[in-house]
Structure formats: structure tokens, C-alpha cells
Amino acid sequence: MDLIPSFQVDHTKIKPGIYESRLDTIGDEFATTFDIRMKYPNTEPVIHPNAMHTIEHIIATFLRNDEEWKDRIIYWGPMGCLTGSYLIVKGHPTPQEIYPLMLRAFEYLKDFEGEVPGATPVNCGNYLLHDLQMAKWEGAQYLKRLKEESCFEYPVTERLETAQGTFYDS
Ligand SMILES: [Zn+2]
């Protein structure tokens, strides 16, 4: 089987940041997938599964309530490699346009107090797999990176145009 396009980006060159990883067309509409990369792949500890699960719950809740963006949010969820998350939005905004939304989302996570939203047996498939304190710590680390480091340089040299959409190849 062919490697799917998102795996063709050179992961040894990815830094923490915000990148467009895929652009799909659905009829006349675009759906843009962003790589919300929180860790350097394969060179630093990944996010613990419990913390990642909590990040998923809190940031998904934030995004679906954000007045500016809530109607355009299709999906937020963790990468299986535990180094970041995927954000899929309607339309074709740039990473720079997504940046203020990510700052708001991760500020919300960093300062979150109270019960993790949806962390109950009724609302979640593994409601004990959470770690709010580590999720908040990871949120603070990523915010610092977003504010202090350049975060829009994806290791891509070529765009692949296909029937399904546009992919970014390394
Ligand atoms: Zn859950």
C-alpha cells in the first residue's frame, strides 16, 4: 500500500508549531487539516496518553464554543504518536489565521479549573484516562513555544494535487 500523504512530510524536520498538513475539497467547499504540533518528533518525551485525552476534551469543548470559529470546527483530536493534535476546519484559513485561536484555546487549557468536560462514563469511552494537571502543564509549555519560537515553517518542498485534494509533501 502507498504511504498516505501526511506521512510523507519529513518528521525529522518538524518543529513544534501550527501547519497546514492537508487540504480537501468537498463539493465547492474546502476542509483544511492543521498539524498542531506540540513536541519535536522522536527527540523529546511525548505527551502522556492521560494528559492528551484531557487536552482533547478541554480544547474540543473550547473550540466548539468559540464565538468566532465554532461554526467552522469540523474536528479536534490527538495524533496517535502523542506529539500533537489535528484540527480540521471548514474553508481554507492560513496557520497565521489559526494562531490567535490556538493561543486562546491553550490559554483556556492552561488556566482550566474544575471538572474535565465530558469525563464521565456516560460521555466518554475511558473516563478514568485523564490527567488535568499534566494537561495544563503541557498547555503552558506549548503556549510558551507558540509565543517565543517561529512556528509556521513546515518541512515541505512540494504540493501534490490529486482528485481528493491538495497534499503537502516533503
Ligand atoms: Zn474521552
Would you give an account of this structure?
The chain is an alpha+beta fold and 170 residues long. The chain has one domain (5-154): Gyrase A, domain 2 (2-Layer Sandwich). It is built from three helices and six strands. It has helices at 49-63, 95-110, 132-148; strands spanning 17-26, 29-37, 73-78, 84-90, 158-161, 165-169. A six-stranded antiparallel sheet has the order 3-4-2-1-6-5, covered by helices on one side. Helix 1 (49-63) crosses helix 2, helix 1 crosses helix 3 and helix 2 runs antiparallel to helix 3 (132-148). The protein is globular, with a radius of gyration of 16 Å. The mean pLDDT is 90. Bound molecules: zinc ion. Zinc ion binds next to helix 1.
Question: How are the secondary structure elements laid out?
Answer:
Layout: E1 17-26, E2 29-37, H1 49-63, E3 73-78, E4 84-90, H2 95-110, H3 132-148, E5 158-161, E6 165-169
Antiparallel strand pairs: 1-2, 1-6, 2-4, 3-4, 5-6
The counted number of beta strands is 6
Rg estimate, integer Å: 16 Å
- End-to-end C-alpha gap: 19 Å
Bound molecules: zinc ion
The chain-level mean pLDDT equals: 90
Tally the helices: 3
Order of helices and strands: EEHEEHHEE
Which structural class do the helices and strands define?
alpha+beta
Strand order in the largest sheet: 3-4-2-1-6-5
Helical percentage:
25-40%
CATH topology: Gyrase A, domain 2
Overall shape: globular
Quick take:
This protein is α+β, with helices and mostly antiparallel strands and 170 residues long. It contains three helices and six strands. A hairpin with a 2-residue loop joins strand 1 and strand 2 (29-37).
